[in-house]
Amino acid sequence: MPTLASPVVNVDAVMLESRAASLAKRSIKTSAKLEGITLAIKCIDLTTLEGKDSRGRVRSLCAKAINPRPGWPNVPSVAAVCVYPNLVPVAKESLRGTTVKVASVATAFPSGLSSLDVKLADAAAALENGADEIDMVIDRGAFLSGDEGSVYAEIVAVKALCGSRAHLKVILETGELGSYDNIRRASDLALEAGADVIKTSTGKVGTNATFPTALVMCEAIRDFARRTGERRGLKVAGGVRNTKQALTYLVIVKETLGDAWLAPDRFRIGASSLLDDLLMQLEKEETGHYAGIDYIPKD
């Protein structure tokens, strides 16, 4: 098993949950709320990971990613579109000439249960198809059974494959890790192995991103930055559906990591339905009234 530079951290669950609950109560109003909503839009990985995904569906999603609210010039593009590896070429072509990145899940998503050769082939296919970012998922069974060495080695191997051409986001699937101590340990392991971003969830299990989970992962990123001088990122995914939740995650990042992390290269929200609520809230802040959901462009 690798010897990690980070010490083993025992998480005080009571204090963690208390602080997360306190941050969730922060009230953001007027211009700060408008800025927060705009930033949240910029940080979205607009995602479709369904068995019925089609080329047309991906093209439609990409059009919305580029221009979420036609006729509103102040609404920014999202950060990325996230799809399965076989649909990366469709997304790449649809997003050509824009700032929107193409992200792809890989390494036997969402289970992480296949051989390393298959996982590397999966990631390689996405990269060959033009993916700018790889969202890999760890083998939770290996981690929970004490085989941290193999989890570490797989992240190292996928990061080596990505090299400098693609960012690597490592999905911990925190809802299956069982404790905050395990989430912290998995976060430290992924960061030491080379993850550019650590990500909460696949969105395919019962428990996905939560405020305490995001906080403990931010603390791991903060401690890693203090120890190494390197700034790594966070992605929350799964169950982030409304503006209040998105703004709370921004507060957690700001209060734990600082303003330098309030940017798409260090913070992402993986979501499919969140964008619609952000757009409705944005219109409310700018005009004083809500647009009906029917006025929001469909992807």
Describe the structure.
With 299 residues, the chain is an alpha/beta fold. The protein is 46% helix and 12% strand. The mean pLDDT is 94.
Secondary-structure blueprint:
Elements: H1 13-24, H2 30-42, E1 44-47, H3 55-66, E2 80-83, H4 88-94, E3 101-106, H5 116-128, E4 133-137, H6 140-144, H7 148-162, E5 167-171, H8 180-193, E6 197-199, H9 211-228, E7 233-237, H10 243-257, E8 267-271, H11 274-287
Parallel strand pairs: 1-2, 1-8, 2-3, 3-4, 4-5, 5-6, 6-7, 7-8
Under the CATH scheme, which class of the domain at 13-29 and 105-285? Alpha Beta
Please bin the fraction of helical residues.
40-55%
Rounded to an integer in angstroms, the radius of gyration calculated over CA atoms is 18 Å
The biggest beta sheet is recorded as: 8 strands, parallel, barrel
CATH topology name of the domain at 13-29 and 105-285, in short, is: TIM Barrel
What is the first-to-last residue Cα distance?
Answer: 45 Å
User: Count of helices?
Assistant: 11
Assign the structural class, choosing from mainly alpha, mainly beta, alpha/beta, alpha+beta, or little secondary structure: alpha/beta
Strand content: 5-15%
Number of strands: 8
Question: In summary, what is this structure?
Answer:
This protein is α/β, with parallel strands linked by helices and 299 residues long. 46% of the residues lie in helices and 12% in strands. The protein has a domain at 13-29 and 105-285: Aldolase class I (TIM Barrel), CATH 3.20.20.
